[in-house]
Amino acid sequence: MSSDKSIQREESASFNEHSLSYIRQAAEYGLYEIRGMGAKRRVPSFDDLIFLSASASRYPLEGYREKCESKTVLGTRYAKQPIELEIPITIAGMSFGSLSANVKEALGQAATQMGTSTTTGDGGMTPEERESSKTLVYQCLPSRYGFNPNDLRKADAIEMVLGQGAKPGGGGMLLGQKVSPRVAEMRTLPEGIDQRSACRHPDWTGPDDLKIKIEELREITDWKIPVYVKMGATRVREDVKLAVKAGADVVVIDGMQGGTAATQQVFIEHTGIPTLAALPLAVEALSDMNVLGEVQLIISGGIRTGADVAKALALGADAVSIGQGVLVALGCNHHAYQRADGEEVDVTGDYAKLGTAPGYCHHCHTGQCPVGITTQDPELEPRLIPEVGAKRLKNYLQVLNMELTTLARACGKSNVHHLEKEDLAALTVEAAAMAKVPLAGTSWIPGTGSV
Asked: Name one GO molecular function term (predicted).
């Protein structure tokens, strides 16, 4: 045996501390880990792309004098009343149950102030959410919890959810501590009992049934409002084509960096493909079906900054949808919550009780959110005041759109929807191959034969 102590202390690449901890926990408890948020592993992302902004060969626009338009229209294929938004940044579906009623109200207020849409999520529509939201997308999920035809007619669009980026092929979870009397009543479930959502819709088994379901939804709403189809990013090209064939007005693709309130960690880290890889595949599918521009494309999963939004649009998305970033803007993982008078109250101790710290918390599933976001606890929920949260979220969305238009003008565009692949280059071979843009400093796109 070698006497070199440095070799004896060398960590195994396969059985590192993370792997050892996982095995020990599985052996001790016989249970898989459930958590919230999204994938923690590093995957190729929009951070691996850069803009080739204007210089001599391209003419930039003056930021103070030349306007850059960001208006966005969704649902132009069949709907009599397409959605018209001021910005191409929407708020993703997050349920009442996983989030508090105060949070849902704050989302609606902020979306209305910014001229964009928000989305219901599993468990139905709350009156506060509908009243505060000028434009509200109503989700139809496999569980059908809280699904109500009367609420459907109050919606401005419908989103048929087939999957989610954090857990494609799996259903949602709402643990018993979050099934409050109100949540239980809306979902027709027993109070305080763990709830699992189905992983597929109960009344269809394939694309033909999806077409029938979309037609039913259109008939209920008199063909007035758009129908979205949302899918987790897996077999993107095939899935998008089937959604288009079934009659979708809008296709939503959610990459693996997307978040969730609660699911098995094995789903979060080991299913789906990165958003960066999914987006070009979806665009290619729409092009193959000759519906580019007719069927709109929304991309989601790990969108955080205005640069992310700009890169998504340059790669062919019509809009983006944000979930985790929205919650962070409200105060998720912050060390304090804000009172109505503006004073911050430190809750570092509450994070410690959960065995975590601000910036590292993924305990959405517990219902013990220290800042009052992912909770139904009557003592914790008031920590998020709707008006305070809405102001923070409006500021965040405003900054994203300012960054988006700034980058578009720098590339010589008078409309954010004029951004294109030619405005991008990749910093890594992997990102170049996934995004199908040249590696920076070359004309080489890996996998295409272009050099």
From this structure: glutamate synthase activity
Whole-structure pTM value: 0.93
Confidence of residue 58 (pLDDT cuts 50, 70, 90): confident
Domain coordinates of the chain in residue numbers?
A: 49-435
Q: In sequence order, what DSSP letters do the residues of 2-18 get, joined into one string?
A: ---HHHHTPPPSSS-HH
8 A C-beta contact, residue 161 and residue 143: no
Structure tokens at 245: 């064939």
CATH H-level superfamily of 49-435 = Aldolase class I (3.20.20.70)
| Contact (Cβ atoms closer than 8 angstroms) between residue 210 and residue 204 | yes
Say which residues have a Cβ less than 8 Å from residue 349's Cβ, sequence separation at least 6: none
For residues 107 and 129, what is the distance between their CA atoms, to the nearest angstrom? 8
Stretch (H or E) spanning 344: strand 344-346
List the structure tokens of 224: 């007035």
Q: What is the pLDDT of residue 142?
A: 85
For residue 358, give both structure tokens: 């601000």
Task: Tell me how long the chain is.
Answer: 451
